[in-house]
Design brief:
This protein is an alpha+beta fold. It is rod-shaped.
Length: about 450
């Protein structure tokens, strides 16, 4: 091998190691960049009869299956976390230890009848019954209204989330187009693919995401039973309400008619919002309605059997809806007794007025009788609180498990595509040593060529 050929081989080595050093530097500088996939230099020997090394290109290290698992795990984790967060807010409405529940108002209501039974003609005791009844109905109203407001807020939150999903889907479609064009022209698309991965990492926590790579470098993004991104075209998600008042998710292309995909929604913040709103909060609101309706109906029935100080009977203590639907928000003092303490039916007999208190005793005893779906008032309220607590605990457990799975999936992706500083430092040292060796060869050949020229010139 002649000196010129050796020099050419050394120059190839110098260029190759320079690319390796540059690539390693890029990896190190992007160690914390979301969506960035580690680059590897692809080196190969020159063709037959030639010596030296050639840089065949750079490879973006990624695993489609690992990435797909991460997106799915992130979506499920986000859904569970969103549900847990919303239930935490609702649980606070029934926290009797903090005074935000109904237990104190419920106890004070039934106790007020006990006090009235001791002195049925006392105007203060009668006013206390009205105050306790008004306080209880007010607390039930406030709780029901807060739950209804939370459902309304979640609906708006879902619409905002859908708008965010649409923006990111459109961005992926745009990047797909850029990648396909660049690939067709033989250009490197690694940076564009990194940008697309970053958008996907932002999209996965919002909605369930499944990616399918295409031969031209684009990807299909499937979500909620539909293709959210098909090449360079993105569908639009919209959030509305169905006839029952539950959320309805539709997917449409452009201004075309939307397709209902609600039942296929499985992950992401949007799914968590829907489950919290239309499953958990809806059930809690229904249970509260049943509680309020049962309580008011049982009290009204007994109150109608008694007589006020004015000798009038058949009055309701509470104003209530005809059925349990919406009862908690509508519960109020009846116009029959509002502002009129003498209308409280403490006596069981018109002729025994004013000292009889048999009906007040019976009203007080309702607290321990199975008057609400076979349960006493305190038991029915305990069931309601227990259901809220059980839902919150189940949501917290699910969120913890999903979070751990998502962390494992992220770790798996990092081990495949992520940058390890230790490995990059080893690679940096390797390329540096090879670069120095190639430089040494060039220096030596240069010296030998100089000596040869001196010898020839004599």
């Amino acid at each position: 091998m002649g000196l010129t050929q050796i020099l050419s081989t050394a120059l190839d080595g110098l260029n190759a190691q320079s690319v390796g050093l540059s690539t390693t530097g890029d990896n190190i500088s992007n160690v914390n960049t979301p969506g960035y996939a580690r680059r590897e230099v692809q080196l190969e020997t020159r063709g037959q009869g030639l010596t030296g090394v050639n840089v065949a290109g750079l490879q973006r290290v990624s695993d489609t299956i690992v990435e797909r698992r991460q997106y799915q795990a992130m979506g499920l984790s986000s859904a569970a976390s969103e549900r847990d967060s919303e239930l935490a807010n609702v649980e606070g409405l029934f926290d009797d230890s903090a005074g935000t529940g109904l237990a104190d108002a419920l106890s004070a209501f039934y106790s007020s009848f006990s006090s009235l039974a001791s002195n049925p003609s006392d105007p203060t005791a009668r006013a206390a019954v009205l105050n306790a009844a008004g306080a209880l109905s007010g607390r039930i109203n406030d709780t029901a209204n807060t739950i209804a407001s939370a459902r309304s807020d979640l609906f708006n939150k879902a619409k905002d989330t859908a708008a965010e999903i649409n923006q990111k889907s459109q961005k992926i479609a745009q990047l797909n187009q850029q990648i396909a064009t660049a690939k067709a022209q033989g250009q490197d698309t690694a940076n564009l693919e990194d940008q697309r991965s970053k958008v996907l990492l932002d999209l996965a926590p919002l909605v369930d995401v499944t990616t399918i790579p295409q031969d031209n470098g684009t990807i299909l993004v499937q979500s909620s039973g539909t293709t959210l991104v098909d090449g360079i075209q993105a569908r639009t998600l919209s959030v509305g309400l169905d006839t029952s008042g539950n959320m309805k998710i539709s997917a449409a292309i452009g201004s075309g008619p939307g397709t209902d995909v609600t039942r296929y929604l499985t992950g992401g913040k949007l799914a968590g919002i829907k489950e919290a709103r239309d499953t958990d909060l809806s059930a809690i609101a229904t249970n509260l309605d049943n509680f309020a309706y049962g309580l008011a109906t049982s009290v009204n029935t007994q109150h109608q059997a008694g007589y006020g100080l004015d000798g009038v009977g058949g009055r309701n203590l509470f104003s209530i809806t005809p059925s349990a639907d919406g009862a908690a928000r509508a519960l109020a003092l009846s116009a029959d007794v509002a502002g009129n303490p003498n209308a409280i039916a403490a006596s069981s007999s018109k002729t025994a007025l004013p000292g009889n208190s048999d009906n007040a005793v019976l009203l007080s005893g309702l607290s321990s009788l199975p008057t609400i779906n076979g349960r006493s008032a305190s038991e029915a309220y305990g069931d309601l609180v227990g259901d809220v607590g059980a839902r919150k605990q189940a949501a917290a457990d699910d969120a913890s498990i999903r979070d751990a799975v998502a962390a494992q999936a992220t770790s798996a992706r990092e081990s495949t595509s992520g940058v390890s500083l230790d490995e990059e430092m080893v690679a940096l040292s390797k390329y540096q040593r090879a670069y120095e060796a190639s430089s040494k060869v060039i220096s030596t050949v240069d010296q030998l060529l100089g000596e040869l020229m001196d010898t020839v010139g004599r």
